[in-house]
């Protein structure tokens, strides 16, 4: 299926006859399950129905590919019952073997057919797939065993229904069809370039800072040391230099 949320099939081969345009004023109420009684592709099924007065909306091929042969808005000739045809969407499931093998259906067809039914239930707001309410069998409306092993009580029925419900639940939880956005992992903080302080512990760095502040405070500038010719307080270094100069240890340049 190209898109479950828009019910876009893999291939479209619309019938040119053996269906009825529109739905006679009826609305879609349920999905009807069928089996093809054959191993056919969408194109092969279209060809068979050119000479047989029958049709269905969708075919699930043996490969799992889904084809559409009648538009959802139109009435397929599928259930041998006009009222049912007008109110349902018919899905044909291809077999993987013939009559001698008792018309088996492979796991891929079961899975894709169930998912298609779930998508249609979701798209047309029919509710979670439930047999007898929005999922029905062909044999309810005519003298036929169809959909054979897919029918209620058949060996494929429980698996098909479970997959349909699980797929519907997934679509309901993810209506956009897009997986939840995963927040990007933040980039790690840059590692600072290593300097000599990195070799000290936190306690040692605090001790160094305290001593540095003490030294700075002791060096000045202080008013007690006097002032220069600009009226600025001298630092300890300036005061020592001034004292040495006055004692004749340095020469004026």
Automatic annotation (TrEMBL):
Superkingdom, natural source: Bacteria
Is Membrane there in the keyword field? no
Q: Does the keyword Hydrolase apply?
A: yes
The record's section on Gene3D superfamilies has: Peptidoglycan recognition protein-like (3.40.80.10)
- EC number(s) recorded for this UniProt protein: 3.5.1.28
Pfam families (alphabetical): Amidase_2
User: What CDD domains is this protein classified in?
Assistant: PGRP
> What are the record keywords, sorted?
Cell wall biogenesis/degradation, Hydrolase
Using the record's annotation, list all stretches that form the N-acetylmuramoyl-L-alanine amidase domain.
16-156
Reactions mediated catalytically: Hydrolyzes the link between N-acetylmuramoyl residues and L-amino acid residues in certain cell-wall glycopeptides
PANTHER family recorded: N-ACETYLMURAMOYL-L-ALANINE AMIDASE AMID
* Protein name, entry field: N-acetylmuramoyl-L-alanine amidase
From which lineage does this chain's organism come?
Answer: Bacteria, Bacillati, Actinomycetota, Actinomycetes, Mycobacteriales
């Amino acid at each position: 299926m190209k898109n479950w949320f828009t019910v876009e099939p893999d291939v479209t081969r619309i019938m040119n006859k053996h269906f009825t345009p529109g739905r006679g004023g009826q609305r879609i109420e349920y999905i009807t399950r069928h089996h093809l009684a054959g191993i056919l592709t969408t194109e092969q099924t279209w060809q068979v129905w050119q000479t047989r007065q029958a049709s269905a909306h969708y075919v699930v091929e043996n490969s799992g590919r889904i084809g559409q042969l009648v538009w959802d808005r139109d009435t397929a000739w599928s259930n041998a019952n006009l009222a049912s045809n007008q109110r349902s969407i018919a899905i044909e499931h291809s077999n993987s073997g013939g009559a001698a093998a008792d018309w088996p259906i492979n796991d891929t067809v079961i899975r894709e057919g169930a998912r298609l039914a779930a998508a249609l239930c979701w798209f047309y707001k029919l509710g979670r797939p439930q047999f007898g309410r929005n999922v029905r069998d062909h044999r309810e409306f005519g003298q036929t065993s169809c959909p054979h092993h897919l029918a209620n009580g058949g060996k494929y029925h429980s698996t098909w229904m479970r997959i349909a419900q699980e797929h519907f639940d997934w679509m309901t939880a993810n209506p956009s069809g897009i997986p939840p956005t995963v927040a990007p992992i933040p980039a790690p903080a840059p590692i600072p370039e290593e300097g000599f302080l990195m070799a000290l512990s936190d306690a040692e760095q605090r001790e160094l800072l305290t001593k540095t502040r003490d030294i700075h405070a002791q060096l000045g500038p202080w008013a007690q040391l006097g002032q220069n010719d600009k009226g600025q307080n001298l630092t300890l270094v300036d005061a020592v230099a001034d004292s040495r100069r006055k004692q004749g240890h340095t020469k004026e340049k």
